[in-house]
UniProtKB/TrEMBL annotation, chains A, B:
CDD domains per the UniProt record, alphabetical: HTH_LacI
Protein name: LacI family DNA-binding transcriptional regulator
InterPro entries: HTH_LacI, LacI/GalR-like_sensor, Lambda_DNA-bd_dom_sf, Peripla_BP_I
Pfam families: LacI, Peripla_BP_3
Sorted UniProt keywords: DNA-binding, Transcription, Transcription regulation
Organism of this sequence: Amedibacillus dolichus
Matching PROSITE patterns: HTH_LACI_1, HTH_LACI_2
Length: 331, 331
DNA sequence: CTGAAAGCGCTAACAA
DNA sequence: TTGTTAGCGCTTTCAG
C-alpha cells in the first residue's frame, strides 16, 4: 500500500497541489466548493500530511526536545505531565531524552537534538553545564531550563528558590529555639542540596551561629537507611531533620523508631519534596509542596512564548513558589 | 547565522555533495584523502546533518512513538527507562505521547503519530482498543504493545501473565488453608485487575469454591484509605489481602493498624506491583517483582527486530516472568 | 481564486 | 572514485 501524498489528493480532486496545500493549512483564499471538493478527496483517500516534508519545507518541526534525568521519580513524571499538557495545546510534539547518571553522553544528546532540528529544548537536568548549554545556543535553539535560575538571549528558566525555602524555614526554627537542625545529603540532587545548604548557612549566620549539621552519607553505605541506623541515637539526635526526598524521610522515620526516638516529640522531621507517600507514613511526614507539574507547564509556556514572539520575551526568569504542608512529624 | 548545509560543506571541501553524503554515511568507496578533506570541512563549519531532510529522502525517521498513560507512577518511568536505553543502542529517538484519563484524545494521538511518520510505535496503555489499533496497522506502522498479549502481522507484544500470577498465588494460599482471600480494586488499571481476578476465580473454581471477595472502592470515596477505614474491622477481615499498587497496600496497612488487626499474624498483605516503598513500610510489605524495566527494554528490542528484519519476526508474543519477594507482611 | 515552479537538505541511482 | 540529477512531500512566491 503506497503512502498517499498531496499529489494523489490533487489528482483525485482535480486541482493543483498548491490548492490542496491551501486547504490543509486553512488558507482563506480558497473558494468554498473547491475546498469541499478537496476535503472530500482527502477524506476518501485517508490522506494525512507528512510532517517530515512539512518540516523540511518550513524549516520547523513543531517538536521540542526534552532532557530529563533517567532516575524516574514521581517528581520528574509530574514535570513531564505539565510539560506535555501545554505542549498539546500548542500542538508541539515531544522528543524525550534521558541522561544516565555518571556517563558523559550529554554530547550525544546535544548532537542528536541539533540534528533532529527541534524548535526548542526544555532541560530539567543538573548535569548540563554552561559549556554544553552554549553549544546549544550556538545553534540558536531556544532553551528553557527547569530548576536553575539563569537566562540570556535564547535561554529562559523556571525554578523554585530552595535557598530561600531553607532560609525561611531555618529562621522559623531558630526563632522557636530549635537550633539543632540537620540536613541530610542526597547525592542524586547535588544542585538542590547545595541551595538548601546555602539557605541554612545564611540563616545560621544571620542569627550569629554556624550551620554545621550537614549529614553526609558515606559512599560505602548502600542506603541512607543503613547509615542512619548507626548514626541516629537517642543521645545523638538533631531537633529537626530535613531531607530532600520522601524515601530519605521514611528512612529517618524508621531508624528513629528503632532507636526509640519519638517523632515529633523528640525529633522533628520535614521533607522538602513532598509526596503522597509522606501522607501514608505514620506519623505522617510534613513537607513542602513543590509545584512539580507547574514547573513543566510553565516551562513549556515560556518556551512557546519565546518561539512565537518576534521581539525578545521580557521576563525569562520565572520563580515558582512552594507551600509548607504541616503534618504530624513537626510540632 | 545561516544554518549550514551539505552544500556548504561540499563547496568548502571542493567536492560534490554526493561525496559529502558518502562520508557522512560511512560509504566505503571514498578515497582516504578526500574523506579527510571532507571531514575537515565538516569540522570547520560545524556541520550537522539535518535529520528531517534525511528522513524525507529515506522515508524513515529513526524515531519511534511511545504512548503511555499520563499517571506517572514509578512503574511507568521504569518502562520508559528500559525502552530508552535500548532505543539509544539502535539510535532511535523517542516521541512521547501521553493519554489523559477519560478524555478520548486517542484519535488525536494516532493522527499525530501517523503524521510524524515514526518508524514504529510502542504502546503501554489500557485505553487503546482494537479498533484504534487497526487504524494504526492500516498505516503499516509496526507496533509493540506492552501489557496485553496479542499479535498479528505488524503487532507484537510483551507482557506479564497476571492471571497466572494470581492463580498460582491463590492456589498456594488455599493449599495452606487460607481461603479468605480478598482483591482490592484499582480503577486506574482495569486490565491488570481483570487478569488478577480471572486468576483468582479460576484458582477457587479448581478447588471447588467460588471467589467472591473482590473489594470495590465505591466511587464516593476519595481514596482507598477512607473506604478501608470503615470496611476493615477485627471481625470483618480477610486472611489475605492482595492489592495492585503500593499505595493501596500502605492504605491497608494503615487501616489495619488502626483497627487493631496485626499484620501478618491476623491478616496477610501482599502487593502485586512491588516498589521500594513496600520495603520502607513497617512491617515491610511482601510483593511481586514485576520486570518493569525489562518490559520496556524487551518491547523496544522486539520493535527494532520487526523494523529491521525482512521476513516476518517469528516470535512476537513475549512473556516476562515475575518473582515473589516475601517480606514481613506475609507468613 | 488557482496553477506553475522553485526551493527545503539530503540520498541514491546512474554516468563518467 | 567522484559528479550529476532525479526524487522524497510539502510550502510559498509569482503569474495568470
Amino acid at each position: 500500500m503506497k503512502r498517499i501524498t498531496i499529489y494523489d489528493v490533487a489528482k483525485e480532486a482535480d486541482v493543483s497541489l498548491a490548492t490542496v496545500s491551501r486547504v490543509i493549512n486553512g488558507s482563506e483564499v480558497v473558494r468554498e466548493d473547491t475546498r469541499i471538493k478537496v476535503q472530500e478527496a482527502i477524506e476518501k483517500l485517508g490522506y494525512k500530511p507528512n510532517a517530515i516534508a512539512q518540516g523540511l519545507a518550513l524549516s520547523k518541526t513543531t517538536t521540542i526536545g526534552l532532557i530529563v534525568p533517567e532516575a524516574s521519580y514521581f517528581y520528574t513524571g509530574q514535570i513531564i505531565n505539565g510539560l506535555i499538557d501545554v505542549a498539546k495545546i500548542y500542538k508541539y510534539n515531544i522528543m524525550l531524552h534521558t541522561t544516565t547518571e555518571g556517563i558523559t553522553e550529554m554530547n550525544d544528546i546535544i548532537e542528536n537534538i541539533i540534528k533532529s532540528r527541534v524548535d526548542g529544548v526544555v532541560i530539567f537536568n543538573d548535569k548540563l553545564n554552561k559549556e554544553e548549554l552554549n553549544q546549544l545556543t550556538r545553534y540558536q535553539v531556544p532553551i528553557v531550563v527547569i530548576g536553575n535560575r539563569m537566562s540570556d538571549e535564547t535561554v529562559g528558566s523556571v525554578y523554585v528558590d530552595y535557598a530561600k525555602l531553607a532560609f525561611d524555614y531555618a529562621c522559623d526554627c531558630i526563632k522557636q529555639g530549635k537550633k539543632q537542625i540537620a540536613l541530610i545529603e542526597d547525592r542524586k540532587n547535588p544542585a538542590m542540596i547545595k541551595q538548601l545548604r546555602e539557605g541554612l548557612t545564611r540563616a545560621f549566620e544571620e542569627n550569629g551561629m554556624t550551620f554545621e549539621n550537614y549529614i553526609e552519607i558515606p559512599k560505602e553505605y548502600r542506603s541512607s537507611y543503613l547509615f542512619l541506623k548507626e548514626y541516629l541515637t537517642k543521645e545523638n539526635r538533631p531537633e529537626v531533620v530535613i531531607t530532600y526526598r520522601d524515601s530519605q524521610a521514611m528512612a529517618v522515620m524508621n531508624t528513629a523508631k528503632e532507636a526509640g526516638i519519638s517523632i515529633p516529640e523528640e525529633m522533628e522531621l520535614v521533607c522538602i519534596l513532598d509526596s503522597k507517600y509522606n501522607a501514608m507514613a505514620r506519623p505522617q511526614i510534613s513537607g513542602f509542596k513543590i509545584p512539580d507539574y507547574d514547573l513543566g507547564a510553565v516551562a513549556m509556556r515560556l518556551l512557546t512564548k519565546m518561539l512565537h514572539e518576534e521581539n525578545e520575551v521580557s521576563d525569562k526568569e520565572i520563580e515558582l513558589s512552594y507551600i509548607f504542608t504541616p503534618r504530624k512529624s513537626t510540632k
